[in-house]
Each structure stands twice: as C-alpha cells, then as structure tokens.
Amino acid sequence: MVEHAYQHLLAMLMSLEIAPGERIAIDAVARQLGISQTPIREALSQLEAEKLVTKLPNVGYRASAQMSREDVRDLYTLRQLIEPYAAARAAQAMTDESIAILEAVGRDMSSIADGDAHAYSRFAEADATLHRLIATGSGNRLIAETIERLHAHLHIFRALYHTNAPQEAAAEHRLIIDALVAHDPGAAEQAVRRHLECSQQRMDRVLAATDE
Q: What is the pTM of this model?
C-alpha cells in the first residue's frame, strides 16, 4: 500500500494536480485510495527524502516550491557529471529487449510535432523511458536512483514552464539512441552531454523571458 500511495502521489506531483507549494491533504488522499493514512504518511516521507515534498511543523506536508534559476543550474551541473558516464556504461550493456524499447521510443519522439496539444505528455513519457533505460543500464544503483530523482524535478519544472521542444529534443535523442543501439560508449557519452547542454540552454531562455 505504501508503494501504491507513493506512485499515486508522485503522479499527482508530476502532473501538477498538486501544484508546487500546495498543501497535501493526507485525509483526502487516503479517501481517494480507500486506505488508511499510515501508508500515505510513509509515502510522503519517501517523497520528502527525494525533496519533492516538504514537511512543515504544525502545517503538514506541502509540495516543494518550484525550482529557482540556481536550482536549475545546479541540477544540470549534477546531470552533466553523471548522465554521460551512465550513457557510456549503458551502451556497453544494451540487450536486444532494451534496443527494441529504444527504437520504439525513437519512433514515438519523431512522430510528435510542435504545437500538438498532447505533445508534452507524450514526449515526456518517451523521454522518461529513454532516461530510465540509461539509468538502469549504467549498472550502478545509486546513479540510477539519482537520475530518477533528478528527472522527476525536471519534469515538474518543464510542465510549469512548457520548456519542451519536441522536434529539437527528438533530434538530440535520436543521436543518443543511435549510439546506444550501436553499443558505442564514446558516442553515447558525447550525445548525452550535447543534449544536456541544449536542454539547459532552452531552460535558460525560458527563465530569462520570465525575468523580463
């Protein structure tokens, strides 16, 4: 029940059904799921450890505040340190099953056009699948867990500011996928590094625009 509650709350946070800074009503969530408040509290403790919610004295749990420009910069610095390495390791460990999933992700991303009302949610799902494959393919549990947490924070930020650029990012992801399928560690590392640089530039442009 704790895992069920965790996934439910995570989905609410990622979809902005619970907005940044919003109070989380434990009793309401318990009623939604038809379970007691205990597993809800345990799930919230897990989300607090991942910095997705915050517990305040005499208030309870709230969704974490939206990331600042400095938070985004720090997040990308950490991603640049670990994700290119993870991609290089994953390229060496790609199985036939993983390659089939990668090819499906590539087709999904290529079919998404800018301006499609459903483009963000579809692209985000494909993006999450790709980065999860890289994370688990690294063979390092701590790296995989870190990438998963970073991706959750980034997804929430993108949903708030609509920073996704499906056509641009699809081309960047295609290079990553090709390198992984070819079992080329050097190309995979470079493709991920370049994608992160471009992604951060897109974030910076959006943040700069909000300051104007």
A: 0.74
Q: What are phi and psi of 193, to 5 degrees?
A: -60, -45
Question: Which DSSP string do the residues of 74-116 spell out, in sequence order?
Answer: HHHHHHHHHHHHHHHHHHHH--HHHHHHHHHHHHHHHTPPTT-
Q: How far apart are CA 177 and CA 197, in angstroms?
A: 17
Residues in the chain: 212
Distance, in Å, from the CA atom of 124 to the CA atom of 117, rounded to the nearest integer, reads: 13
Q: Give the tokens for residue 44.
A: 């919230």
> Do the beta carbons of residue 87 and residue 189 sit within 8 Å?
yes
| Strand-pair partners of 151 | none
Q: Retrieve residue 141's tokens.
A: 């549990």
Nearest 5°: the CA angle 98, 102, 103 is 120
CA nearest 2: which of 61, 43, 53, 50? 43
Has residue 84 got a pLDDT over 60? yes
| pLDDT digits 0-9 by tens, 35-80 | 999 999 999 998 888 788 889 888 889 998 877 778 888 989 999 9
Kindly give the interhelix angle for 141-161 and 119-137, rounded to the nearest 10 degrees: 170
CA dihedral 188, 191, 192, 197 (to 10 degrees): 160
